[in-house]
């Protein structure tokens, strides 16, 4: 009797745990789907005006993912190459260059695109062209580049693992705005711009959900088979 009780408790715990994980993955998928829809909707709104951009505050989510067209000049001396970033499953650099806005002293960080890494000469920077003089940059407003795991140390130099906006502002003395721009458009200047969608991957969450639910169903079926069906068959056997 005790053995049957323990088996029943284990089965219930297994079914509850796997079913809960399935619902958690399903919820994550719905969140990503909603986020993707919101990003798409914002991408179809009117472009952010220079006045709106200059008035942006830290954590101003209302402007994120909206299109933007900027004019200004690159501050090429402060270009940063963020290491261990992937595009199309290939590791390399995200290239980030400050852009001084035309008619203003304000500066915004532009995630210009992705460039491959030289894995033989790891200190070698990729060939990225940075035009001098006035340029026009089209893209969308985005949070500062996502941080990868790293020790909490202040990084210097062109190649870095992460870029902390407040530290970079203090380091360079540039009046950086609290948002960044993710540049759009075809490949140019040695850079690819096939950016991964922050809200993509919902189909994986849904797939994982069905896997967990299938495992929950399997536990229930096996429990019923070994605890009820098989003993009855054995009892009926001559």
From TrEMBL:
Topological relation to the membrane, as annotated: Multi-pass membrane protein
Signal peptide stretch: none
Source superkingdom: Bacteria
Main location: membrane
Transmembrane segments: 210-230
Annotated compartments: Cell membrane; Membrane
Alphabetical list of InterPro entries matching this protein: Surf1/Shy1, Surf1/Surf4
Pfam families xref list: SURF1
Protein keywords: Cell membrane, Membrane, Transmembrane, Transmembrane helix
Stored CDD domains: SURF1
GO CC term, one of those recorded: plasma membrane
Family: Belongs to the SURF1 family.
UniProt name for this protein: SURF1-like protein
Organism: Ramlibacter montanisoli
Higher taxonomy: Bacteria, Pseudomonadati, Pseudomonadota, Betaproteobacteria, Burkholderiales
């Amino acid at each position: 009797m005790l053995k049957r009780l323990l088996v029943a408790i284990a089965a219930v715990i297994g079914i509850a745990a796997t079913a809960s994980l399935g619902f958690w993955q399903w919820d994550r998928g719905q969140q990503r789907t909603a986020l993707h829809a919101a990003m798409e909707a914002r991408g179809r709104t009117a472009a952010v005006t220079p006045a709106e951009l200059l008035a942006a505050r830290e954590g101003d989510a209302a402007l994120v993912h909206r299109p933007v067209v900027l004019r200004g000049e690159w501050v090429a001396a402060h270009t940063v190459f963020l290491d261990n970033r992937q595009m199309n499953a290939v590791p390399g650099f995200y290239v980030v260059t400050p852009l001084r806005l035309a008619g203003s002293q304000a500066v915004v960080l532009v995630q210009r695109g992705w460039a491959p890494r030289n894995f033989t000469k790891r200190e070698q920077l990729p060939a990225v062209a940075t035009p001098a003089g006035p340029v026009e940059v089209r893209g969308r407003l985005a949070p500062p580049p996502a941080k990868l795991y790293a020790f909490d140390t202040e990084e210097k130099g062109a190649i870095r693992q992460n870029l902390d906006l407040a530290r970079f502002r203090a380091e360079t003395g540039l009046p950086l705005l609290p948002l960044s721009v993710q540049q759009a458009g075809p490949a140019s200047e040695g850079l690819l711009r096939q950016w991964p969608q922050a809200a993509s991957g919902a189909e994986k969450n849904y797939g994982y959900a069905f896997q967990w639910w299938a495992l929950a169903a399997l536990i229930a079926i096996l429990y019923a088979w070994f605890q009820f069906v098989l003993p009855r068959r054995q009892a009926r056997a001559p």
